[in-house]
Write the structure tokens for this entry.
Amino acid sequence: MDWIRDHAAETWLIAAVVLGALELASTDLILLMLAGGALIGMVVALTGGPFILQLLAALAVAVGLLAVVRPGMVKRLHAGPELKIGPEALIGKQGLILEPTESAAPGRVKIGGEVWSARPYDEDDRLETGDHVEIVAIRGGIALVVRSQHPVTE
């Protein structure tokens, strides 16, 4: 025990390294936050602070990291891009009207190289060949479209 007291900074550093290595196996970010607290304990030991101050500083920083930093990190790590597949992936894409379309008579629209049946989203609208549209919904096999405010050439 005398060695630990005489080499407090080294002991805190060893604890931080061990906790950091164990974090690689757990991947919960809890041990990493404790390692951060141990590093602060080492800093206090290097400045000559008494052991109780080292321990309180290490605990305060570890708890603070667990309460403030870890939740944001976990949220970012678990959040990923939303994967849209099938017809839902077409919503928001631009298209080009190939055949005139109105609510009563669906026409055709080219969306990213594919040809789909299309109807105007607004029942009173009529879209002509060559109109640039945006897909707002897919109902069955029919794309519901609105005129695009910002046409994109395909």
User: Anything to note?
Assistant: Residues 72 and 113 are 40 Å apart (CA to CA). DSSP finds four helices and seven strands in the chain. The two ends are 74 Å apart (CA to CA).
